Amino acid sequence: MTRRVGVLALQGGYGVHISALERCGYTVCEVRDAETLSSLDGLVLPGGESTTHLKLIKRFQLEDALTHFVRSGRPILATCAGLILASTAVTGPEQRSFGWLDVDVERNGWGRQVHSFEAPADVTPCADHFGELPLPLMFIRAPRLTRIGSDVEVLATVSDEPVIVRQGQVYGATCHPELTSDLRVHQRVFGP
């Protein structure tokens, strides 16, 4: 059975996620309204500007539908700005978030645009969750995880700092796995 995965397509880097998901063999659709969410097996909250995402989620009245989706137990991948939205608390500066993932983040914690970088994930714990290394990870104005709740599992680190985490079916990545040719992060979240 082909999985139907949606990508929140209000702003930001949703197109690259769509391409990565299609390469995985999923049926993919752009999400801009609450009705579309009901037909999905999974959802991506992409990178972009988290403050702009918040404004557009409010404008399109999507917050309740997104919260319902999270509570339904279907898998979610929240990358970069998506992770900021899903987190419990945000600093640098403070802003509203939804609290779907028990982590705190610092916006642009890895640096500004000029500090963007690519790095392989550390061997431990990455090999246990993503298989053979290296797992390439791309960081662009990436948030930094400053607190991780006791029910949150660290799936990947870079220089011993957590960069991919999971709590239940909600996965958060400070990086942009969609910008590499490696599909293992999407496949881990949404299945084979």
Question: What is the gist of this entry?
Answer:
With 192 residues, the protein is of the alpha/beta class. The chain is built from seven helices and twelve strands.
CATH class: Alpha Beta
CATH architectural group? 3-Layer(aba) Sandwich
CATH superfamily: Class I glutamine amidotransferase (GATase) domain
Number of domains as seen in the coordinates: 1
Report the sheet with the most strands, covering strand number, pairing sense and barrel closure: 7 strands, mixed
- Number-wise, the strands total 12
Q: What is the rounded Rg?
A: 15 Å
Helix- and strand-based class? alpha/beta
Number of helices: 7
Distance between the termini: 10 Å
Q: Strands across the major sheet, in which order?
A: 2-1-3-4-12-11-10
What portion of residues belong to β-strands? Answer: 25-35%
CATH T-level fold name: Rossmann fold
H/E element order? EHEHEHHEHEEEHEEEEEH
**Net shape:** globular
Q: Kindly state the percentage of residues in helix.
A: 25-40%
Report the mean per-residue pLDDT as an integer. Answer: 93
Uncertain regions spanning at least 5 consecutive residues: none
